[in-house]
Structures are given as structure tokens and as C-alpha cells.
């Protein structure tokens, strides 16, 4: 069931959001030590913030602000906190997010309408292939949302293809929630153990943490690798702990749908001004309906493009395109600007590459250097030249490439302290 606000007109959605914005600003001005102090220091009269366009009168909130003043963002007393979630901090220490009972209800609502967007309905069974522990918001959010939808959940957790297939064959889930690259491991295990995966109960997967599409919404190399073998429908979703909100694709696969009752979205340039329609910039949001730790104009660090043309699913909300890259991870290499996802796509074009990591360092001149370490089935000079030519054709530059082994890379990629595989390592002396 599509919420009424998501099929309203653009003018109605804007008016609704402006009413909610006024409520939020009054709330944080009274309850948030961080924002009440900020508004006072900047001499900001929140009564003057009446429209979405007026948001530019407010300063942005950064990850560094959250890091330095974490406790000052809390708007409720500690005894109101039901769940404690953390996200990795940009300055080294984790940032804590408290959630009240109301916030958990909002989280469940967000996931329920997001999963409904992707086609999950009451009567489905979903295999949860992500962690639900270690203060990880997403796993809990998925469980709460599916429970709200009256959908069966199999909490298998991350990794272990054998256990995943055991659960699929035993409980017959219709959807999986997983990191997409792990589906390749699932396919490999099934092929090696004579599992007829294309005749399994699984018809779709909600994919997190890695992109499935190019900027024009065509399938990228990773999603093609998966669906060329396993004939299931893949749905991309984009979310973060800070926003407690997801942007999930519908069946038409043209971007993650915005939920205007939960979040206000801006895309800003390097001077914190809104970009022109159709241009890319840094996704910045203002949360609505959060009780414990609402955020105003929070910069995510993710470079995206918004899409506002109508979707065939009937929703009139804007859509967030695939993440182009993280602002902090922008690389200037031999006069070319690159983001890690572009290099991932090049590497995923080769079936013989078993695993890889990308390392970025600064040289003595202060410019960026790229080293890619690969585990390849047949590491020949001919393959190396073919890979370099492909990089040159796709990205105009060729990074330094070294061959290594799966055994050497696996513990680096699958760090037990990380919630998802790590392929990118930024070892530069200074960031962006």
C-alpha cells in the first residue's frame, strides 16, 4: 500500500514537508542542546524558515559535528532511550545514536513501506543475511519492518553459504536481504554442490552496501554477473544510520524512492548551495519524526543525482540515483577525477578476478597514487595488459596493479570488526 503523501502532487508534498519542517525546528530549538546553541550563536530566528528554499538560511551539520558534540544532539533523557546504535566516526571514535520507542516505530514504518516498494508482501518469507547485533541499526530495522508487515523472517546473519542454502532449501524464503557480491559466493557454492538454484524458492533480493546500477539505471557489471546465472530480481536500497530512512527501488528500477513523511532531501554543491536540477552533488537531509536525535541539513558525504520525473509505479516522490562516490574518497589521479565505484565496475567486468582491494596513498608531491591488489585465477602478463587496457578505455588512466592471493586478501576484505566487505583503503596523509 503506497502512503497517500507519496502519490500526492509535488505542490502538496512540498506544503506537507514545510509544515513538518516548522514543527521540527521548534522541537530542536527547545530540546537539542546542539541546535539551540547553534541557532543562538548564528542569530537564527527559526520563524523565518518557512519554505524548503529557506533551508539555505541554516548552517549544515557535518559528521565532524556529530563526532565532537555527540551527546548534545540528544533531545530526550537517557531513560527514554530503548536502543543504542553506533556508526563508525570520521575522526576515529564511533558515533552513538539513541532511539526511543517512537523512533523504533518510525524505523519499522520506514522499512515496511520500503520493502513494500520492492514488492515484498504479507505471506512472503525473507532471509535476513545481515547482522542484527553489534549495535548495527540496519539488521534491527529490517527485522522490525518485516515484522510490521507480518512477513516471516529467517535470521541467518552474514556469510556461510552452506548455512544460507540450508535455510533456503528448508524454509523456502521468497526474498533475501544481502550484500550483492555475496550472492556470487552463493552461486559458486550452489554450482559446486549441485544445488538447482534457479528452481529455488528465491525470486528476489534486496541488496545493500554495493551499487547495482550505472547512472542511467542500466545494470552494472556486478548485477549482470549475478543475474546472468541466477534469474532473480535485484532491488537496490540506500540508507544510513544517521537518516534512519531508506531509499529503495520499486520494480521499475529507476532510483530509490523518497519518503517525504520521513525526510527532507537536498543536493548541495561544494559551497553548500543547492545544485541545479539534474546536476550531481552531496546528498544532505533533514529528518522528520525522529524523537531522540533529529538532524537538520546533515551532509552525508555521498555524491548523487536526484530524479524528479514521474515513476510508472504511481509514486510522485523524487528518486535518488546510484551513489557516484563518497566526497571524502574522491581521487585525483594523473589529471582525472575518480571515485572507487568506477574502479569497482571495471574490475567486476572480469570473471577471472576472484578478489581485490584498492589502496590510495599520497606521494612525495602530495598527489594521489592508486594500487590495486588482485587475486586472479590465471595471473598472466596477457591478462594484466588486458586489464590495463580496459582501465584506460573506461577511465582514461591505468592504476598500478599487483597480483596476490585470495588467502592474503580475504582477511583484509572480510575484517571481523566490519559489517560488510571492505575493498577500499584510503591511506592518504590528508583527506577531502
TrEMBL record:
Keywords per UniProt: Ligase
Domain AMP-dependent synthetase/ligase: start-end pairs: 86-285
This protein's record includes keyword Ligase: yes
Gene Ontology molecular function terms on file: ligase activity
Protein name: Phenylacetate--CoA ligase family protein
Organism annotation: Flavobacterium aquariorum
Amino acid at each position: 500500500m503506497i502512503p497517500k503523501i507519496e502519490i500526492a502532487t509535488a505542490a502538496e508534498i512540498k506544503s506537507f514537508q514545510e509544515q513538518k519542517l516548522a514543527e521540527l525546528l521548534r522541537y530542536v530549538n527547545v530540546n537539542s542542546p546542539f541546535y539551540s546553541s547553534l541557532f543562538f550563536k548564528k542569530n537564527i530566528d527559526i520563524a523565518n524558515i518557512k519554505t524548503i528554499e529557506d533551508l539555505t538560511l541554516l548552517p549544515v551539520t557535518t559528521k565532524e559535528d556529530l563526532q565532537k558534540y555527540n551527546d548534545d544532539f540528544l533531545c530526550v533523557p537517557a531513560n527514554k532511550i530503548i536502543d543504542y546504535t553506533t556508526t563508525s566516526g570520521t575522526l576515529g571514535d564511533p558515533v552513538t545514536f539513541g532511539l526511543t520507542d517512537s523512533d523504533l516505530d518510525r524505523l519499522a514504518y520506514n522499512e515496511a513501506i520500503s520493502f513494500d516498494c520492492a514488492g515484498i508482501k504479507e505471506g512472503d518469507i525473507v532471509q535476513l543475511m545481515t547482522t542484527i547485533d553489534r549495535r548495527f541499526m540496519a539488521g534491527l530495522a529490517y527485522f522490525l519492518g518485516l515484522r510490521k508487515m507480518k512477513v516471516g523472517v529467517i535470521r541467518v546473519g552474514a556469510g556461510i553459504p552452506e548455512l544460507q542454502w540450508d535455510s533456503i532449501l528448508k524454509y523456502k524464503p521468497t526474498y533475501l536481504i544481502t550484500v550483492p557480491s555475496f550472492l556470487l559466493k552463493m552461486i559458486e557454492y550452489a554450482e559446486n554442490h549441485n544445488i538447482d538454484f534457479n528452481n529455488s524458492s528465491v525470486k528476489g533480493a534486496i541488496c545493500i552496501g554495493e551499487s547495482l546500477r550505472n547512472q542511467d539505471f542500466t545494470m552494472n557489471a556486478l548485477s549482470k554477473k549475478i543475474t546472468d546465472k541466477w534469474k532473480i530480481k535485484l532491488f537496490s536500497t540506500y540508507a544510513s544510520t544517521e537518516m534512519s530512512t531508506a531509499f529503495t527501488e520499486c520494480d521499475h528500477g529507476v532510483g530509490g524512492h523518497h519518503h517525504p513523511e520521513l525526510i527532507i532531501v537536498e543536493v548541495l554543491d561544494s559551497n553548500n548551495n543547492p545544485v541545479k536540477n539534474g546536476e550531481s552533488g552531496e546528498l544532505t537531509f533533514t529528518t522528520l519524526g525522529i524523537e531522540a536525535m533529529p538532524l537538520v541539513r546533515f551532509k552525508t558525504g555521498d555524491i548523487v543525482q536526484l530524479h524528479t520525473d514521474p515513476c510508472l509505479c504511481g509514486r510522485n516522490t523524487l528518486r535518488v540515483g546510484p551513489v557516484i562516490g563518497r566526497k571524502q574518497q574522491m581521487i585525483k589521479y594523473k589529471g582525472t577525477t575518480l571515485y572507487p565505484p568506477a574502479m569497482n565496475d571495471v574490475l567486476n567486468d572480469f570473471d577471472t578476478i576472484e578478489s581485490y582491494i584498492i589502496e590510495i596513498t599520497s606521494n612525495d608531491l602530495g598527489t594521489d597514487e592508486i594500487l590495486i591488489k588482485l587475486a586472479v585465477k590465471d595471473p598472466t602478463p596477457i591478462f594484466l595488459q588486458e586489464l590495463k587496457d580496459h582501465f584506460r578505455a573506461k577511465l582514461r588512466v591505468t592504476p598500478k596493479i599487483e597480483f596476490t592471493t585470495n588467502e592474503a586478501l580475504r582477511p583484509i576484505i572480510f575484517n571481523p570488526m566490519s559489517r560488510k566487505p571492505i575493498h577500499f583503503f584510503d591511506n592518504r596523509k590528508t583527506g577531502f
